[in-house]
Inverse folding.
């Protein structure tokens, strides 16, 4: 029998798998499956189209009642170009911290869950615990969508979900949503001395980006606002732009990427419609005067809904009691798969070991005290479900 031993041992194993989103996560999934199957726990996999990545869903307990999902993503962000003082895919412990890519985001949570399997089984839970471990969260919460589609087919639906993203083991009840888009501007080439015969794709892109920025500044001034978020408003941001060949050719192509990080109740689609209306009214008519072959293409690269769990939700009081905290549940600007779970009908909170301030950075780490607190939280959860 493969033993998870302690959560430290398990976390070492998980970090050793390079599950950067561009890679397969199947070796890590096989490792998790072996821990579960050795204990008689069956798991179900849902694959991506290429069958190079998989989500895992497993149930521990008798399953006679709606249970609680413990959810985590198995992929990590790249280490390319980062200066690490430790081996990114080899866990290093020093000064009360465990260093490694994914230590806090979010293999630490998964490791603690796996190390509790024997305890979950010994409790013979009538209200089951479910594991939901996904792929490609870091590139837009891609994998969890397939997992949730399969979950809809279950005869008994879970009632709640705990997303184990790093929150320093505080209870988070809300986060912003995100719409990540690519704009491809098609212009018309001409010699740079004959500007009237061309349509400059870079100029059209720049005008659109300037309009996006004007919307961002208006929202920053006028709202809507929610002071529990930082910043307390929806944000828009352009991060990548590419276009042109040489300076004496009017560029016929330009591409830029931008994102909208919206308050849960502020529709990103309404904001995009405003951008699209500007393009159609102010830019396309002038472009088509030169050539009707010019235009704009929009592509969604990633999106996920915001999370907005009410303060009086039972899962918030349950988690707060288990953690023995009276702190007000928080709201964060980073995203998780929580919005997808809530949209699927599950009462959802975010609570996990480590700080988001350490995520994605070189020398990413999780405090050993945070892992211990997560272990205590899951032990208390087991006792509350007996």
């Amino acid at each position: 029998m493969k033993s998870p031993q302690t959560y430290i041992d398990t976390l070492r194993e998980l970090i050793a798998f390079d599950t950067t989103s561009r890679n397969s996560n199947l070796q890590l999934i096989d490792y998790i499956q072996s821990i579960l199957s050795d204990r008689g726990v069956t798991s179900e996999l849902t694959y991506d189209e290429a069958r190079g990545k998989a989500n895992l869903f497993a149930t521990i307990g008798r399953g006679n009642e709606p249970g609680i999902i413990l959810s985590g993503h198995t992929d990590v962000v790249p280490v390319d170009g980062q200066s690490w003082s430790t081996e990114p895919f080899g866990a290093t412990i020093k000064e009360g911290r465990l260093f490694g890519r994914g230590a806090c985001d979010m293999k630490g949570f998964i490791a603690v869950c796996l190390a509790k399997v024997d305890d979950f089984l010994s409790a013979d839970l009538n209200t089951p615990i479910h594991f939901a471990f996904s792929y490609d969260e870091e590139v837009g919460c891609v994998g969890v969508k397939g997992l949730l589609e399969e979950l809809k087919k279950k005869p008994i639906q879970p009632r709640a979900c705990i997303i184990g993203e790093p929150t320093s083991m505080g209870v988070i009840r809300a986060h912003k949503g995100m719409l990540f888009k690519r704009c491809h501007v098609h212009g018309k080439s001409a010699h740079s001395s004959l500007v009237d015969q061309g349509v400059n794709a870079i100029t059209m892109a720049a005008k659109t980006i300037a309009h996006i920025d004007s919307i961002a500044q208006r929202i920053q001034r006028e709202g809507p606002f929610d002071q529990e978020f930082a910043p307390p408003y929806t944000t828009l941001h352009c991060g990548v732009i590419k276009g042109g060949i040489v300076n004496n050719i009017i560029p016929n192509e330009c591409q830029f990427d931008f994102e909208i990080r919206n308050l849960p109740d502020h529709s990103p689609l309404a904001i995009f419609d405003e951008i699209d209306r500007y393009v159609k009214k102010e830019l396309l008519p002038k472009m088509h005067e030169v050539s009707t072959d010019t235009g704009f293409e929009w592509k969604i690269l990633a999106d996920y809904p915001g999370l907005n769990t009410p303060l009086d939700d039972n899962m918030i009081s349950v988690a707060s009691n288990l953690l023995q905290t009276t702190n007000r549940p928080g709201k964060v600007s980073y995203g998780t798969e929580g919005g997808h779970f809530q949209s699927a009908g599950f009462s959802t909170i975010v609570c996990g070991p480590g700080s988001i301030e350490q995520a994605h950075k070189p020398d990413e780490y999780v405090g050993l005290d945070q892992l211990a607190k997560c272990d205590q939280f899951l032990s208390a959860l087991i006792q509350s479900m007996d």
Summary: The chain has a mean pLDDT of 96. DSSP finds ten helices and 16 strands in the chain.
